[in-house]
Amino acid sequence: MMSNHHGKEFLGFVATAPPIFLPERLWEFIASPKPKVDSMGRPREAPYGMRKIEAILQEKGFNAAIIDPDYLGKYLDSMKVILLSHHDYFGYGPPSSEWWSLTGKEPLNRRSFIRLMNKPEIRKAKEKGVKIIAGGPAAWQWLYEVKKLVEWGVDTVVDGEGEKVVIDLIERALNNDPLPKYVYVGAEDVPSVDEIPIIRGGSVNGLVEIMRGCPRGCRFCSVTLRPLRFIPIDKIVKEIQVNLSAGVKGTILHSEDVLLYHADGVKPRPEPILKLHEEVVGLIGDKGSFAWSHASLSALKYAEENYKLISRLMHEYLLTESRRFIGVEVGIETGSVRIAKKIMQGKSLPYPIESWPDIVEDAFRIMHENFIIPAATVILGVPEETGDDVVKTIELIERLKDYRSLIVPMFFVPMGSLKKGEWFIKEYLKREHVDALLKMYNHSIYWAEDIMRRFYLKSPANFPVRILLKFFIRYAKRQVNKHVGKIEEYIRQ
Amino acid sequence: MFDASVPVLLIPVSDVQRLYNELLKISVRERKKRLTIYVWMDSWSVEENIEKIKSIISLNHLLTMSFYVIRQDLEALKSHRPSHIYVVIPETRMEVAQGLIGQLSELGIQAEEVVIPEL
């Protein structure tokens, strides 16, 4: 599934759901239309991680290129190694797994990946002795699909940052040496800033990373285990220039917490942030699209309350006639201080974790006032969570009702349960969870309609997608409304 | 003293924490070295062995670990022919280990036994 989601990163979320209410083809058209490619099948925009691996391979002299899966057949006689990457190969990551558990239907990303691997081109490639190496953020999922790994002839899985280990693996593959089945890249083997190459082709929606790693130490997140590295501004500029040359008119600054770029620990510093945005806006101009990938709510609050940094960034640099909002993913995760203390003690810093619900509300207000639209995640079903913890989360969501945002529930699903095929919803869902899901659904539908009306997909080229999305929202509302009485009755009982 | 550059042949058992602790001891002198682990797969089912690998990975965030699957023919080892190898042997699997060590010796690979007592 290679796509720029119509230039709208949020639409990528739709690809994590199963095709419901609409035929799969239409669903694909909305969520993940095919990318533009050249005559060789090379996409104009490709996933950023793949671009990094492509760059390091080319740097070392390998004849490597990213190819749209539809063009694999063209290279059957010449290719020696296929490298795969995916954000969510089998739909076990959030939020795919929860849409899957709620609807009982396989999500689109899983379906399309299985379709790819069952293609005759893959079978023929294996018959010709082509080696397959799979990596990317969802590499871990192969350990739960060993039968498929064997069936499709995947030779190696690489779990972790690949820049330093990939060359050795490719050399082994080309020399027909035995390949390890699984490589876990440890913290000591991640590349330093100097070892991270500059991408050589356009990335999806112009995404460029400004940092790797995260200092907050949340227990549900693996990024936090890797060392923190800040990408120098000249490298960021070069990557944006690569994207602009490739025809990608905008950028997404990627980090686990954008406002911590060259921060003083977990306290944002205005100078590096302003300098970065000044450089970026100078490149993409007034009309280029712009987003942050992730920011923490505590950093947003700290930056605004201490330096008015958010309003300065938005009003002096980012908001223009054609750029009327920016999007970002943020993590609420829970409204319960008790759970927050257990799973994300560092997420509230520099504020105490006891103020977490207030931090969330303050940050949402700041974003609303400054035209930042967050897609926020809430984790349900954390181990040891009680009904009271979920009620606290519900209360927090109610406090956020006036702030423009999408709130996406995510189930904490232990992999063991997923494997059994018995879904969270059947085994673990409490009345409070149902209430929380309904609250988040109502919140997100209300604001999704507002966002569509005021900001989203306004250009004439996006008209068909806009109509389909509107249709989908209305249809989903009708379907849920049919059952809402029963659900509320269930909650009351 | 263990040498972190020497690969490991691992015979999986249920107590993965103890297996992992043993791996850490073996590679403790210089953790920056990547650790090559040959996992003996002829015992138990593949699924059970994969569970052990999963558990080891979940315990580990420091080391780069490359897992090779090894069956009766010792294919990857025949190709790599390391001069030395540590064979991590749970005490209860001594019989399997001795057979493997014999095969390694025929290949000219010097095996050093690392026995985990009462496992």
Overview of this protein structure:
The complex is a heterodimer of chains A (493) and B (119). Chain A starts with 23 loop residues before the first helix and ends with a helix. Chain A has 493 residues and is an alpha/beta fold. Chain A is 42% helix and 11% strand. The longest helix of chain A is centred in the C-terminal third of the chain and has 30 residues, at 463-492. Chain A has three domains: 5-189, Cobalamin-binding domain (Rossmann fold, 3-Layer(aba) Sandwich), CATH 3.40.50.280; 202-324, Transcription Regulator spoIIAA, CATH 3.30.750; 327-493, Transcription Regulator spoIIAA (2-Layer Sandwich). In chain A, strand 3, helix 7 (166-174) and strand 4 form a beta-alpha-beta unit. Chain A contains 18 helices and twelve strands. By secondary structure, chain B is α/β, with parallel strands linked by helices. Chain B is built from four helices and five strands; from the N terminus they run E-H-E-H-E-H-E-H-E. In chain B, helix 4 links the parallel strand 4 (84-90) and strand 5. Chain B is globular and about 35 Å long. Chain B starts with 7 loop residues before the first strand and ends with a strand. The relative contact order of chain B is 0.23.
Helix-and-strand structural type of chain A? alpha/beta
| The level-1 CATH class of chain B | Alpha Beta
Largest beta sheet: strand ordering of chain B:
3-2-1-4-5
- Total count of helical runs of at least 4 residues of chain A: 18
Distance between the termini of chain B: 22 Å
Output mean pLDDT of chain A: 88
What's the helix-strand series of chain B?
EHEHEHEHE
Largest sheet of chain B: 5 strands, parallel
Radius of gyration of chain B: 13 Å
Tally the helices of chain B: what do you get? 4
Radius of gyration of chain A: 22 Å
Q: Classify the fold: give the CATH topology of chain B.
A: Rossmann fold
Unreliable spans of chain A = 415-423
